[in-house]
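Lab notebook: predicted structure, single chain.

Context: the supervisor wants predicted structures on file for every construct in the current expression panel, including those that have not yet been purified. This is the next one on the list. No modifications to the sequence; it matches the entry in the shared construct table.
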Amino acid sequence: QVHLMESGGGLVQPGGSLKLSCAASGITFKIHTMDWNRQAPGKQRELVARISSTGTTTYEDSVKGRFTISRDNDRNRVYLQMNSLNPEDTAVYYCCVSRGGSTYWGRGTQVTVSS
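Prediction complete. Output recorded below exactly as produced.
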């Protein structure tokens, strides 16, 4: 059974930083591409960052240069370091993985950027 659990969200002031973590189980973690997505109130869920099994990363344009996705295959974790946060980054952040034609999601972690 695939299980993803996000942590690390919270309230931060504009310009601040947070590091999100996603713990994965039930998969052979090191072979899978892992994604971070987010969903802001009233908006569709969007892909924020992706890291392949080989470590290749891609980012949504608005977070390039501010967010960094990384992974630790020994700990079955994927991370999202978020710097220079602004109110537009406020959203629930989810990690997800696709396996066997299905996509699995965690329950998400809330990030709120506000003064």
